Structures are given as C-alpha cells and as structure tokens.
Amino acid sequence: MSRASDFVDRVVKHVSSSAREYTFRHWSVPGKVTEEAVVLLPVPNVDPSKVLARVMDVGNYVGNVDHVLESRAIQDPRFTPPAEVRFYQRIKIPVLGELHHDLVMRRLPGTPGGFEVAAWEMLEPETNALSPKVGMRSQYSDGAWLVAPGLVGYALSSCPRRDDVGFIKWKAMTAGAEVAASKVIRENIECMCRWASRA
User: Fold this and answer.
1) DSSP state string for 129-154
2) Contact in structure between 36 and 158 (CB atoms under 8 Å)
3) What pLDDT is recorded for position 165?
4) H-helix or E-strand containing 163?
C-alpha cells in the first residue's frame, strides 16, 4: 500500500461523506512535526468527475489554483497516466515564502469513506535534490482531494526541511500552523471547484 493510501485511511476516520456543513479537523501523528488536517466544504451540484479531472491536470494549475507559482508534469516510467502522474510544484505560502517539491498524484481505487479520491505523496530523493536557493524544500508532503456528491475535501500533511528554514519561519510553519492553514485550504477548494465548473 502506498503512503498516500495510508494517509487517506487516516483522513477518512475524521470526516464523513454525508457531511453538509463546513468541517475542519486536525490531529497529530507519531513521528511528524506538524499535525495532519482536512477541510470539507459543501459545494452544491459539484461534479466529482470534473473536479478530479482538474486535480489530475497538474500542468495547468498555474492561473487556476491560487498560490501555485509553477507546476509541471514529468514523464517517469514508474508512473502511468492518466491514473498517476509525477509532477514538480512550487508554491508561495503567504508571508512565509516559497516551497517546492517533487510529487506523484494518484487516483485511488474504490471510494474510501464514501469519497472519490486523488492523493499525492512526496518523492523524497527527487525533492532532496532540488535547490534550496529556489525555495524551501518539503521534508514531507502528503495530501488528498476527496469528492462526494455536494462535498469537496482537501487534506494535507506538510512540513519544510528544517535546514532550509530560519528559526522564526520554522516556528510559524510548525507551531499551530494547521489552524492558520485552514483559510488557504478552503481557498484551494474554491479555486479547484471554479476551475472544474468551467470544464
């Protein structure tokens, strides 16, 4: 089982696909500096297939998803489109600066917790090889998009490399960052849904 599947298994224990109100949950995981978090946002008449098609369209995030400065698919024989795609992404975290990493996004089989899911995990060697001069590198980055009728969710577990970040930024990005992240997560969901509605 992939790390992304393990992450999604933890996420769906904290949320319900029958939820019909804004939901924000976060929890600690042994061995991780930051907590994991998930936001569910009711979106009437949302089309799960259109949302997840946009999620997998990693090469077109720039201009459609806020805070994404660069996002491009990378051909890699280990990963077979359209069910999985490797990609490089550079994002701007408000106030704190730029973060980049190498990831793989996968459509997961079945409907975990009643959701259709696309989940990503960080490729550690490839991310470690990135230049810290371009941006902070992730220490870990796991996440997922979860879609059910009338409901879209975004789950995240992320942390920058300690040696790429000064002390003040490190504290800001790790101590209580989950609550501060809820606004950015909600914005991501809203952007993705607007983009999907134009399909």
Assistant:
1) TS-TTTSEEEEEEEEEEEEETTEEEE
2) no
3) 85
4) none
